[in-house]
Amino acid sequence: MKGIRRRGKSSKKAVRESISMGMLAVPGIVLLLIFNYAPMFGIVIAFKNYKPLKGIWGSAWNGLDNFKFFFSSADAVRTIRNTILYNFSWMILGTITAVTLALMFYSLKNAKALKLYNTVILFPRFLSAVVVAFLAEVFLHSRYGLLNQMLEALGKGRTDWYTQIGVWPLILTIVYIWGHVGVTSVIYYSSLMSLDEGLLEAARLDGANKIKQIWHVMLPHLLPIIIIQNILSIGKLFTGDFGLFYQVPKNTGVLYPVTDIINTYTYRALQAGDLARGAAIGLFQSAAGFLTVVLANAVVKKISPENCLF
Amino acid sequence: MKKKKNLGQICLHIVFILITVMYVLPLLMVISVSFTDETTLIQSGYRLIPKVFSTAAYELALRNPMKIIRAYGVTIFFTLAATLLSTVVMAMLAYPMSRPNFIWKKQLNFFVYFTMLFSGGMVPTYILLTSVLHLDDKILVYILPGLVSAYNVMIIRTNYQSIPDELIEAAKIDGAKELYICFKIVVPLAKPGIASVAFLFLVTKWNDWMTSMLYIRDPDLYSLQYLLQRLIREVEYLKQATEMGSYVGDAVVPTETLRFAMAIIAAGPVLVAFPFFQKYFTKGMTLGGVKG
């Protein structure tokens, strides 16, 4: 097994104890080795001209060709730009809306109403992307959809939303916020619950109005959890929500300029049997994500060490 | 009746009621459309209140229920099996990670945490599951991959850490084995945290459609959400064909409303169960802020 470290007199006992404790971790370790670590070694195919029949080791090396192929294509610019822009703007927009909602929850005095609103805002977390896409269609359907009904009522013509590139950044943003703001706002709200009411009382006595209370008491209280939530999001800057981008625009080719992200692109590479290129993109995604999260963590560590992730 | 109500509170409620409408309206629409007569739907589009009530779509959907029943069976089976296994494995894995006297604590924590920061990606996983482990077209493909989620393990570990050390040491002095301590002392005390992690895991599994899309070709093994996606698309094609005139029938086939009935059949149970589990759910999420 692992190397034995000596620690004073009781080292033998400590090792024996640790081994029997460690035994409990074995199933978990084995599963992580197979399903998480083994694929990490599988990324060697990113540097190979992978042929399934020849296997991973039998296929010939081709250096950085797969990367060159991807990065020199227009797809690379498009998918990377889309992925980063959506994720980054949603990180900011998501935080603002979630914090606002959390503050609103905190100001509500009626406990029953609070619970009801909480339930309502959380339920999208229980829906699959398939169902969410379907709910979006209620509004967007070209013949029967609510938006077109409204347009017609206003005397304007129908629009085929599933071919209008321009509106999709907005549609995706609305669907994303609609689906995700519930969870984050409840996280922030429950952090506010642990806020010392005495602090608010003191601020009130000092003549601080509501805005000042929020700015000087509540937001600083929320800051650590906001930071932790967002460091995690930064790590996912290069990884898009596949379900959202694949299901909601119904995988419509016309919309790819604004709906194609790295993950949907990789999926299509996989479908086309172009595994090596898919692996190269995946490696780029993982490496870039890893670097950004480590970097973000280092920055936070420097500014406020108690808020860093690791 | 309260005579004096804070104006601010009233404004808050108004905003929240508007938000509630935004969340509930699409869902009510789906329910309502699924009970609408196809002909009136074609004439007047999706309406919140059906002009002419009809259950034709459900009758059509359930005329051949085997597909749906199978998908329900498959989904219920892998959801329960995966949740159970995952919870047990993670509860065990988190135990040494939380014990201060476990001498490889740091290494084990890093080993688990690293999988959160770096991954092989979709393609190497695909190759592993298909060409190496040959899990494609087997129900195990829904269960085994992703059984251990680093994030959930960290949450459980954080829960364990708040358990007083003396309790565990005392049991040790009494001669209890580690396995016994883990499942008889530590796990029961961390039950609320573990329950909410398990519940979140269960919801994710129930909503899985991507595993079927990537790994399953046998229609008998489709998950419920994937079947829904396929049925919705199939009906769409069928409808296009009808409009092209290649289908000529006397009666109007309720194709459009059929899609809505399917969606309700697939999403319904979770939505009905949701309010009852919300307590656990909220708790699980708020454990989110974990440190490595």
In short:
The complex is a heterodimer of chains A (310) and B (292). With 310 residues, chain A is mainly α.
Which key phrases capture this entry?
heterodimer, A: 310 residues, mainly alpha, 14 helices, 2 strands, 1% strand, B: 292 residues, MetI-like fold, 73% helix
Structural summary, described in words:
The complex is a heterodimer of chains A (310) and B (292). Chain A is mostly helical and 310 residues long. Chain A has a domain at 85-259: MetI-like fold. Chain A contains 14 helices and two strands. Chain A has a two-stranded antiparallel sheet. Chain A is globular, with a radius of gyration of 25 Å. Chain A starts with 10 loop residues before the first helix and ends in a 7-residue tail after the last helix. Chain B is mainly alpha-helical and 292 residues long. The longest helix of chain B has 33 residues, at 66-98. Chain B is globular and about 75 Å long. The relative contact order of chain B is 0.13. Chains A and B meet through helix 1, helix 5, helix 6, helix 7 and helix 8 of A and helix 1, helix 4, helix 5, helix 6 and helix 10 of B.
